[in-house]
Request: fold
Amino acid sequence: MSRYAAFVLLLSSGIVFQLSHGTEVNVTNKDGKLCLYASLTVNFSVEYTAAGKGALATFGLPSNVTTTGSKCDNTSSTLTLNFGAGHSWSINFTVNGKNYQTDTITFSYNLNDSSLFPNSESNETKSVTAKPQITDIGLGTCYSCKSRDLIQADLVNMTLSDVLIQAFVSNGSRSENETICSADVPTTTAAPTTTVTNSTSTPTTPPTTTPTPTLPTPTTGKYGVKNDANGTDCLLATFGLRIGFTQGEKYQEMNFEPNGTKASGSCGTNSSELLLVSNDITIMFTFISDSKKFRLHALNVTTHGVQFSEVNTNLSLWEASVGSSYMCNKEQNNTITNLLSLYTFNLQVQPFEVKKGVFSTAEECQGDAESFLVPIAVGVALLVLILIVMVVYFIGRKRYMATGYESF
Ligand SMILES: *[C@@H]1O[C@H](CO)[C@@H](O)[C@H](O)[C@H]1NC(C)=O
Ligand SMILES: *[C@@H]1O[C@H](CO)[C@@H](O)[C@H](O)[C@H]1NC(C)=O
Ligand SMILES: *[C@@H]1O[C@H](CO)[C@@H](O)[C@H](O)[C@H]1NC(C)=O
Ligand SMILES: *[C@@H]1O[C@H](CO)[C@@H](O)[C@H](O)[C@H]1NC(C)=O
Ligand SMILES: *[C@@H]1O[C@H](CO)[C@@H](O)[C@H](O)[C@H]1NC(C)=O
Ligand SMILES: *[C@@H]1O[C@H](CO)[C@@H](O)[C@H](O)[C@H]1NC(C)=O
Ligand SMILES: *[C@@H]1O[C@H](CO)[C@@H](O)[C@H](O)[C@H]1NC(C)=O
Ligand SMILES: *[C@@H]1O[C@H](CO)[C@@H](O)[C@H](O)[C@H]1NC(C)=O
Ligand SMILES: *[C@@H]1O[C@H](CO)[C@@H](O)[C@H](O)[C@H]1NC(C)=O
Ligand SMILES: *[C@@H]1O[C@H](CO)[C@@H](O)[C@H](O)[C@H]1NC(C)=O
Reply:
């Protein structure tokens, strides 16, 4: 209830300006004061099926939009632009300390609109979401980015350009101060810079930045592959996964979501496979065994939304004796190819000789074993110290008593 009360405003009667190109909107709160300002150009390209064949629709965000569904709050704002026959483009912002950032972009498009999607087989309204990398915008400033920013989401590409947005307008008028995106900064500085266009003010120091927003630790998933013959697990794997990949110029990270993931695979004497298919990522692990040791030999990662696929078939990771499992609780960062890194959390795998469907004795990775040894080492050192102190004390006491007798 208090959450609803917190909504400073919610508003639909955005005033819409017509521009020769681009779209400009003012979202006002219920007092009629400006609370969100946006001016931007968005070009869409959408793959769809027309008459049994793949077709590509390209169109721009028209200047004639409505802002129904937009809302401004103290800590989060949403800009929703509705256009044409049931399409809408929405971007939301959240406050993060002294800055704000974009969270998600959601685009819904109505394939029943034959003016944009001629001959579409489907008449559904589809929706895609993407997480743009627009962060560290100083509160009280506009985000300005003239450069093109390509945002890919499943079958849709959205190209943003000439963006000027202030998501949290405090006193009813747009700020003259701007946070310029890194792509617009002519020098090699990668960080967004706050510039003060207000001529009477002195420039502020740029906010400290992180290149990518830190993701939460991925959820740990438990997976098994069943034996064909008797249906018991012959391969076990437990881990949280994150991939880091470079596409074009852009490095991004994605957590692997166990919920909804389908696990399959096969177990052999020399080679076992685990195939995980989640909504966003398909990963194939190939383990080999030379009868003494097993290891992860090949990894094939394919992402579904943004098209990315990398394979390495010559790995030597997660090595342990056959008949035991490999375990690594600490975060591990493995370089798979120069474009792909695999991060693992709370890892335990056993691709061969699983008995009774449970993990066998674990062989731990170096970091884990060290973290286990450190307390022991510290304990031993303390014990030795205590012994030395006691020995010194007794020797001293003996001497003192001896000299004591002499002095009498
Ligand atoms: C958007 O599309 C228009 C017309 O198709 C084109 O003139 C413009 O260059 C495009 N802008 C971007 C950023 O791709
Ligand atoms: C959408 O298409 C299905 C079959 O393709 C049809 O049964 C349905 O009536 C259509 N719905 C609309 C709103 O046109
Ligand atoms: C989106 O852009 C990528 C890279 O330029 C391209 O490979 C892909 O075909 C595009 N997809 C659409 C739907 O335009
Ligand atoms: C611009 O930034 C300066 C320094 O941070 C501040 O003093 C000034 O009030 C800001 N101007 C506006 C219009 O927000
Ligand atoms: C299931 O089959 C595998 C090999 O085919 C065998 O090693 C295992 O003991 C069997 N488990 C049970 C419970 O029969
Ligand atoms: C898994 O996903 C379903 C639907 O996507 C959801 O209802 C369920 O709560 C999720 N479970 C967990 C544990 O997140
Ligand atoms: C497994 O490897 C051993 C020797 O490394 C070989 O003799 C055997 O034929 C291999 N089995 C299979 C099924 O490939
Ligand atoms: C990797 O996986 C993708 C998708 O599952 C598949 O299309 C591709 O052929 C695989 N590559 C290799 C080398 O196995
Ligand atoms: C596989 O890796 C080993 C060492 O990591 C290297 O010596 C060998 O040349 C590689 N083989 C291929 C086919 O890349
Ligand atoms: C993981 O390793 C890659 C390649 O060595 C490196 O570029 C990246 O910064 C590392 N990531 C972390 C979080 O340590």
Confidence is low (pLDDT under 50) at residues 1-20, 188-210. The pocket of 2-acetamido-2-deoxy-beta-D-glucopyranose (ligand 1) is lined by residues 43, 60, 148, 159, 161 (CB under 6 Å). Residues 366-407 form the longest helix (42 residues). The first strand starts at residue 15 and ends at 17.
